[in-house]
Amino acid sequence: MRVWRICSERFAATAFSGEGSRTTSGRWNSEGVPVAYASEHLSLAALELFIHIDGEDEPRDLMAVEAEVAVSPKIVAKQQAEILERLGPTWRFDMTATRAIGDEWFAAQDSLVMAVPSVVIEVEWNFLINPRHREFATMKIVQQRAFRFDERMFRRVH
Asked: Who wins on pLDDT, 88 or 4?
């Protein structure tokens, strides 16, 4: 399975280390839990980053990192069904619940990847990557390329 992550150029070599999430909690992890967030499509990775950018200043030092993760589509489909069953109707607004699910998954060390729904595009999927899982070394970086948002995304709308 291919996944995408966009990060600052200085972090491209360690894009999947989970260091950023270890120092700052995210939707699916508590502080201290190192997971790397990735998306099923480059466009979703861009939107997931875009919602966190403050102001009108486009970041100019971004890299799109594509990786190949050895996980079967059947396992991903099973994870997707299980997570949707587990989430309540207000999951998008309850980060305590989603963090608990992600932390539990990380602690179990059962899988390298966990499929989680995107808040930005509800019918698309993000993936948590566990950099401390025994299969992490099997993950392969396919490509790294400069990434730029379209400048129109940073124009103020009046």
From this structure: 4
